[in-house]
Amino acid sequence: MALEFQDKVVLITGAGSGIGRATTIKMASLGASLALCDINYDSLSNVSKSCPSVPKHLDDVDVSSSQEVSKFVSSTIDKFGKIDHVFNCAGVNPTSYPLEDTTEEYWDKLVNTNLKGVYNVTKACIPYLKDGASFVNVSSISGIRGSAQQAIYCATKFAVIGFSKCMALELGPKGIRTNIVAPGYIDTPTNAGIVKGGEAVERMKNGNALGRLGTPEEVADVVAFLFGEASRYMNGAVVEIDGGIKMSSTTSK
């Protein structure tokens, strides 16, 4: 298979686990040079060992900090001289709470990572992107339909879609595309249903037409497509990766 991204630099946040990890490995297999960040450097280092043959830049970054993000983007430019594609994957998965039981701290944690993090990374990268570059941002099926006891998480994921569609309009005239993936029930270590196990996992499996959980690799395949030439006329699109979701209040992603 041709290495479609042989001369491309791909920046990935939340690269240390789950969908970010799978996308890192996928893009490495397609020849990309990688700028990888995660709040957990040990996880990031382990992912790096899975793709030893491609040029990489690693750093532990809290995407809610504009200073840390700006430093990471600048150091990426220092190393590679450019950024071609950006995958905004860093995020915090929900814990189910009635709204009256949530706290300001919980609000800040989700909003600052899931939404402000996308803003920080996008704003920092834009000056370095050229015609043909693109963003892929992670929303969720909970950014398309509501989920009981996940009001704050849903708010962040709905907002990612709105933010991304605006960026598609702002950046499209420059030849820079922005698209969104909305994963459903994906088998990742931080999925609340996976953590609960047992009946929660079975409910997720039964919550879509395919009767199983998705894998991070199946999301990574879509991300690679959205970065690639085959999706060159896709801009502002929301791609649901959910196996044919049924109406449910079960936790997502």
Description:
This protein is of the alpha/beta class and 253 residues long. The chain has one domain (9-241): Rossmann fold, CATH 3.40.50. It is 41% helix and 14% strand. The protein is built from eight helices and seven strands, in the order E-H-E-H-E-H-E-H-E-H-E-H-H-H-E. It has helices spanning 18-29, 41-49, 66-80, 104-125, 151-171, 192-196, 199-205, 216-227, and strands at 9-13, 33-38, 56-60, 85-88, 134-138, 177-183, 238-241. A seven-stranded parallel beta sheet has the order 3-2-1-4-5-6-7, with helices on both faces. Helix 1 links the parallel strand 1 (9-13) and strand 2. Helix 1 crosses helix 8 (216-227) and helix 4 runs parallel beside helix 5. The longest helix has 22 residues, at 104-125. The relative contact order is 0.15. Residues 249-253 have low confidence and may be disordered.
